[in-house]
Every structure is written in C-alpha cells, then in structure tokens.
Amino acid sequence: MISSYFGGLLIMISIYLILALSLQLALGFCGLFNLGFVGFYAIGAYASALLALSGQPFWFCLLTAALVPTIFAYILSTATNKLKGDYLALATMGFSFVIYAVTLNWIGLTKGPLGLPGIPRPQFWGIDFNNDTNFLILSALIAILTYLILHKIASSPFGKTLEAIRDDELAAKSLGKKTATAKSLALMISAFFAGIAGCLLASYLSYIDPTSFMFVNLIPILTIVVIGGLASLPGTVFATIIIVLLPEPLRFIGLPSSLIGPGRQLLYALFLLLILLYKPKGFYGKVELE
Amino acid sequence: MMGIDLSCFSQNIKEKSSLFIQIFINGLVAGAIYALIASGFSLIYSTNKFVHFAHGTVAVWGGYLLYWFYSLLGLDFWLAAVLTIISTAIIGFLLNLLFYKPLRKRKSSSSILLIASVGLLILLESLIQIFFGNNVKTIGFVQSRTGISIAGGLITPLQIITIISAVILFIFLTWFMNKTKTGKAMRAVADNKDVAEIVGISAEKIYTWSFVVGSAIAGLAGILITLEYNLTPTMGTNLMIKGFAGAIIGGIGSVPGAIAGSFFLGLVEKFGIWFLPSGFQDAIAFIILFIFLLFKSTGLFTVKKEATK
Fold first, then answer.
1. Running DSSP on this structure, what letter comes out for residue B136?
2. Average pLDDT, chain A
C-alpha cells in the first residue's frame, strides 16, 4: 500500500501530466498561445461532475468531459483563427474568464462559489476506485495513454505540419498545408485531453468549485511546458514531476496555512521567470517561441 | 381614474430616467478608472510592442502602498499619494530593468515577453498576499459619502475627482506625447524603432521611460480605485483585462483612443448589468473584447492592421 500522501501526489502528477502534455500540443508544437486552456479543464470537470452526480456511469462522464470541451475548442478556434500572438492570447484568456464567470454565477447549474460536493468515484469491472491506489492506477494509465497518443500525433505528418505552422505559417501554407484546419484540430485535441484531466480531478477530489479554474491555475501548467522545453514530451514528464513536488516542502517548514497558497504561486512565478531568463529553451526543448 | 394612471406612468418614467442617469454616472466613473489603466498600458504597449500583463497588478500595488503609507504608517494623505505614485514608477522601472531588459537583450520574441509578464503578474500578486494578507482592505480617507444630485442621479465628490483626474491626465498625455522631446521620441519608437534609432533616439531609454510614466499613471489609478472600491490582492488581472479591452476598443497603441475606448467599456458594462446579474459584469468586458478582436481588431480610432499581421 502506498501512503495516501504520496498516492495523492502521484495522482496529481498524473493529472498535471495530462494537462501539460495537451497544452504542449497547442503551445509547444503548434505555437498557439492558448491562455484559455484552463477554461477547457473547467468545462471537462463540471461536465463530468454534473453527470456523475446524476448517476451516469464513469465511461460516459469521461467521454462527455472530453467531447464537450472539444466542441468549445472548435467554436473558439473558428472564431479566433485569424488572430495571432498577443491578440490570440488575450482572446483565449477572455474565454477562460467567461467560463470562470459562468461557473461562479450560473448558480442553478454549478451552485456558484459553493461548488459541487459529493462527486462519486468511478466503479466498474468490480473494481472500487474509492481506494486511492486503484484510482492512482487508473489515472496513471490514462496519463500514459495520453502520452502515447500525443507522441503518436507529434511524430505523425500532422505533427510535423503543426511544427511547420509554429515556425513559419506562411511557408506551411504555401506548401499547400491547410493551416487553419490544422490549428483548429490542435486546439481541439488539446481541449479533449484537458477535459479528461478535468474529469479525473473532479472524481479524485470528489468536490470542485470555481477557484480551481481561475486564471492563476494556468501558471503551473505553463511553467511545466516552459521548463520541460517546447515540443519536448519527455521534458514535459520531467518538468511535471518537478513542478508538482516543488512546493511540497512549504507544507513542512511550518508556514502559516494562509501563506502556503501565495508561497506556492510565488515559487512557480519565480521559477518561470528564472527559466525564461537563463534557460529559455527549457531543459529538453529544441525550439524557442517566435 | 385616468389621472391616477397617468401619474403612475410618469412616476415610472421618472424612476427609469433617474436610474438611467445613475447607471450613466457609474459607467463614467468605471470608465475613468479603466482609462487610467488603459492609457498607461497603451503607452507601454505602443513602444515595447508586447502585452505587459502585470500592469494591472502594478496599479493594485499602488493601492496597497497607499494603504501602507496612509493607514499603517499614518502619513499625511497627499504625501502618501505622492509617495505611492513615485513607488509605482519605481516598480515599473525595476520590472523593466530586472526582467524585460535582459530578455530583450537576448532577442526574446514578444511571446516570451508575454509569458514573462504573466509570471510577473503572479509574482506581484502573491507578494501582495504574503505582505498584506488575503482579506479585503479599505482605507477610509473619504468619510462623507453624501452625493450631489444631478438630474436624479447621485455622484459623490470622489467620483467627480476620479472623472476629472482622467480628463486632466488625457490633456497631460496629449501634451506630453506631442510637445515634449521624450514624448515625441516615444511616438517615433512606437512608429518605427529602427528609424528612430538611426536618428539617434535610444530605444532602450524610451522603453524605460514608458515603463516609468505608464506605471506612475497606474499608481494614480491604484489610488483612485482604493478610494472608490475595496482592495483585494487578485483584482489586478481583472483591471488589466479592462484596461486592455479599453485599449483594443479605442485602437491599440493610441493613448487618446485607449481613453475613449475605456469610457465606452465602462458605460457598456454598467448598462449591461441592468439586464444581467451583476456577477456577469466582468464577463461583459471579455465579450466586448472578444467582439472587437474578431470584427474590429484595429479599434475605433486607428487605421493600422495589427492583430493578424
């Protein structure tokens, strides 16, 4: 038996790995500055939580949690396809704020700031996932599967097209690549996996509220992608482990509990800035953002 | 019977119209505050050409510094206000010197600078939480809340001061950008950095200047926000989005445009919550921002095409 503390950490590593890998596809491979990423995570978490609370089976919750954000990503990418750089970043950031405002204010659906408690853990094939070890195996399996799928995508011709778009969209276009479609697909795949991570988070914590999906929550994920290095999947795994474990010592040095949250953020922000200043390609990255 | 009906009707109209005036006033006040954020932001953006996300949080730092100087140290209010503006100017100077300048030296792209500014936003925000705590702060300088009645709507003296500050700032900035040497150099760098450098303007100096002036304006905004509303550590992101939305609506890179756009945003937002629950006030700004980004990314007052370049 793994102690529940380390089990919990490993589950969080799996969830963050899925998130970081999917942001990696949009930002690292395709160069899409998607600051609305947390919005997809939120939609996935709320969709699966609401379905699970109404007694739907886990596979159905997971599937919906993946597909609903994908649809939103399709709409968002269609709307923002022409925007680039700073403007795309701001528009997608606006998206995540709108989603946050909805989770906070649509009381009838989301119970607003009170959040949704009592989300059941999955149960299938006679396995009870209320046991943390079983849940860890499930989330680790999903994280590994995500890695393999994204690795497959990244090394496919489609993945090469994405990298071409990141490096020079005009050149990719002039070679006959449908860049708009490719960018849209990248965003949709990214949202698909973000939704899955949201579903795992909701059923792991058995409680979600809007604060988990504030813009600030993008920082650890973004830091992972930058530290691991753009377009580097093994780097992402390495960086995820570091970033999830990095603030853990804060728990043990006797900091007042009100300082732990800000302290963690401070650490992430400093780490992000230092990497940008001194190791801009991250630890395993091959490219720098244009 | 007719008479009673009519009087009810006119009563209703009167209430509606005074509500209208009240919302209009609230919109102007919000717009004035957004304009202060947007003009500083726009100043920095026009010369530096990247989104300085931490700008809103610099304004929040201004608010907390005022709280520190005035409420905790007990300084005279006007002295505290001047110290606040100087301090935020120094914060802007340091952010540029310690983070953006080394990044620029390494020829980092504007995307990298944008990620760095998101990092700085979180850094400044968590420092506020660590130094001042998470709870809401009020400063209590303006005791009297009695308003002056204008056509059925109430406006407090502070709100009048806020609007006047925005107008004065608008005049000052127009003068600064058009008449002073530094202002002209800023416009030159904003227009074409390489040509400006050829005629002997140091771009690096201008970047520093725009951070100092922009952050000083943010400090003024912080003071007015603190007097008008309450202080919370995380309000910076929201302010920044409002400022950015104002700047986009008015036409990014144009300081007068940013001010006009901000007033427009303030009004639309306040009239929006006439129909929607007030929690959606922030969402309204994003939706307007979104609409402008998609359909009129050049804003109302500029002709250059930037967003898809």
1. -
2. 81
